[in-house]
Structure formats: C-alpha cells, structure tokens
Design goal:
Blueprint (H helix, E strand, L loop, with lengths): L48 E5 L14 E7 L2 E9 L1 H16 L11
Antiparallel strand pairs: 1-2, 2-3
Length: about 110
C-alpha cells in the first residue's frame, strides 16, 4: 500500500494534505483548488491532428493531385509544416510527426525494470 503524501502534489503548493479515513485512494491534494481540472490541465497531445492534403490548385502548374501539404491542427489553429511535397514524402513526414506526438514510451523497446 502506498503511503499518503504529507504535502500537496500540486506544483508550488506545500500545504499539508488532510487525512481521509474513507476507503479508497488516499488524497494527494490539499484542496479542490489544487486538484487539476480540464480548464487548468495542460493541453494533451491527442488534441493535435496531423493532416496530409493536396491543394485545389498547384502553385507551379503541376497537377494538384501530385502536390501535398502537411499541417498540424488543434481546433481552429493550424501550422503548415511543409508544402509542395510529393505523396511519399508527405506521408513519411506525417508518420514521423504522429510517432513524435503520440508515441507510447512503453512500446519503444525500452527495457523493463
């Protein structure tokens, strides 16, 4: 059984954590104000999408189906990572971005202690 922490787990808070005599997990935060919520939580990587699309019109006269753009999107915010790529290059870049953003460290060949 893991011992109950004596101080709050919130960054920058050193107040004591009240003891609970109820069954279940012991508290790790001193109050509801220190407990993380969705509004105060950091942005999750899953909120970011990697998109690979081709434009309606090619800027250099090539067929639009042969020109690809790679973008990162979160909600209404968009960052163009690369444009005017061929299909294999755009998809390889998208795979690398997905691996970077969504990699599970348990599946990366790391030795288990």
């Amino acid at each position: 059984m893991t011992p109950t922490p004596t101080t709050c787990a919130a960054p920058g808070c050193d107040r004591p954590v009240p003891r609970s005599h109820r069954p279940g997990r012991p508290p790790i935060y001193c109050s509801a104000d220190c407990r993380p919520t969705r509004a105060r939580a950091p942005v999750r990587r899953a909120d970011v999408l990697v998109e690979v699309e081709h434009p309606d019109v090619s800027p250099d006269g090539r067929p639009a189906e042969r020109v690809w753009t790679v973008r990162l999107r979160r909600g209404q915010r968009v960052v163009v990572v690369a444009e005017d790529l061929g299909w294999p290059t755009a998809n390889a870049l998208a795979r690398e971005l997905n691996d970077l953003l969504f990699a599970n460290p348990l599946h990366e060949g790391v030795a288990i202690d």
